[in-house]
Design a protein that fits this description.
- The chain is α+β, with helices and mostly antiparallel strands.
- It is 47% helix and 15% strand.
- It has a single domain (14-102), classed as Winged helix-like DNA-binding domain superfamily/Winged helix DNA-binding domain (Arc Repressor Mutant, subunit A, Orthogonal Bundle).
- The protein has helices at residues 20-32, 38-49, 55-67, 94-111, and strands spanning 8-11, 14-17, 71-75, 88-92.
- Strands 1-2 form a two-stranded antiparallel ribbon.
- The chain is globular, with a radius of gyration of 16 Å.
Amino acid sequence: MLYVFNIQTYKGDGMHKLTKHEELVLLFIWKLTDDAYLVTLRKHFRDTTGKSLNFGSLCNTLTTLVRKGLIESRESNPVARQGGRRKVLYTLTIEGKKALNHAYKVQKLAWDGFSEIAP
């Protein structure tokens, strides 16, 4: 039996497709909770996938996720040192949590009955 999935998220009456890359970034934002900013997201991506992600690509993905209404950004308080800068922190919106839950359910359904694939 062949299953075809079109992963989509819904915001209001609009539809947004969620790429695998966007799904990973959403998952990392959820995992990092209050520490999800550009540097930690990039490090977590590299540690988890073994692949480097340049800042430009990550910034584009974050901008897209904000535009889709799946995440929100806010500035932190300045770092407590001379010349301390603010960080832009990211959190999931309710729609982002729904999108991540939907992606999880689709993946679980797709992998049901399988274990790790041997080379």
